[in-house]
């Protein structure tokens, strides 16, 4: 497979990947026109992608839709990243709760447009609202049960204090006032005899309680809890109070939980326990509430672990309260050491010390302090680079009680896709430059033949003079200087072509627009002469300096001039003319107008002229204008087709002026 085909396949794969995403992804320029979007936009807006690209948002959106996001659009074009949720009705009839993530596209401190990622979070929000409602109800029930338990415990404490003040049976019974109350007498052999109990005891747990049977709980106790009964008798007979919980089966066959408070009374004269007073509480509702709470916590834990993102919850002191396993997996070096109770500082400090976080040549302690200063940050997210080329996006939002919810999202694939997209565009631009030089091979050969012919002619003349001895030093110097000049001209042509087709992407420097335009004009000199094209150029007095990548802007000018020349060749235009005018439009931008008097552009192609693979030439990929637009927008300007009343066509692009200190 040829390299050109491989690069195109790579580009198409990137498009396929973006089209497969379950979210809207794209780019909007400063005029709020859609430059790129993936296929999902067709479903949501019920229009073909070819119609949507180039359309202004105000035209695409309904009035209500545009008013919903208008403030956010101003923010992102002012350079502030937006991450908000809104409810919006779309043309497909769906009303969605969407997460709007607008990321400004900056270059040289200027905003050129913004990237957008729009995710449908309707189902997620519904699930969160349902979970929140369950938790609120559960908290209320637990609070009620806890309050009731606290109230009962307080009553028992009062009763215990009163019981210690008197050994009189009825006073103890009257002050304990619990659900179930009964009293045993203990004889010298350790046998226990039930001497008193409340009527509720026999009503709820069945008649036939034998007053002489101190083991009346055993027949109705859950089989798994029988060992608790045996242990509590031993404890009470050893003159120790006991508090035990176990399950019993009531008269209706229901399982109920009891909490049994037992207090022995020790006779010092007999040196043994002589009586045991017992109060039993029915704690079935409290245990059921606790079990329900445990189940909800288990469900919450499972829900958190099912998230694709990492989750951490910190309290008001920034101590870790809850987290899921995705966080542990995202940070393989430090994640295993994450524990509840750790502070946010502890967690990030370990990650930095393990070499997991790339701190961009900032001292580790300084990086930690800067990270803490932006935690939490309700307006921005933090993209953190990890070792191994991975990227994690940190979103930290404060809760109503002063805590912090932290979401960690692995954006490695997105970062790689963006890097690959930029690489593909650069490679495609390089391919187009090489293709252009291939189309101009014969013209370049003619361009080189002129200085080479001069060199040969002057060299032959010099040899003849030397043979005849008819020469003077001054004549030889003149001839040699002309040979040198012709050689330098050949070298300049070859050097310019080599730089033009180079793969390298030089950084932006201060350049003269006049020099760039004239150099491209010289590069196309042979084609211009071949087709008898007249050129007119006008530049501002004092020149026009811009901050650009020279090769990239040369490619834009080359594409526009070459398109005009090709249109002349196809149409047979009489007296072909190309005009290039450079004008300052304000203190920030220059505009460049490239006009010709050729056949112009077919009206059916006007809306698609900047789309890839659109061309009316017999040869070529149809990528020239698309790449040119990308280059200009990458420099903070705009490339557009200007509608004029004159014949031919006119392209206009803007570039940032070089700002002198």
Instruction: Determine the fraction of residues in helical runs and give it as a percent range.
Output: 40-55%
CATH 2nd-level architecture of the largest domain: 2-Layer Sandwich
Beta content: 15-25%
Tally of separate domains: 5
CATH top level label of the largest domain: Alpha Beta
Biggest sheet, strands in spatial order?
2-1-5-4-3
At CATH level 3, the topology of the largest domain is: Heat Shock Protein 90
Which structural class do the helices and strands define?
Answer: alpha+beta
Poorly predicted ranges: 170-178
Q: Give me the CATH superfamily of the largest domain.
A: Histidine kinase-like ATPase, C-terminal domain
Q: Give the end-to-end Cα distance, rounded to a whole number of Å.
A: 51 Å
Rounded Rg: 43 Å
Major β-sheet annotation:
5 strands, antiparallel
- Global morphology: elongated
Report the count of strand segments.
22
Mean pLDDT: 80
DSSP helical segment count: 20
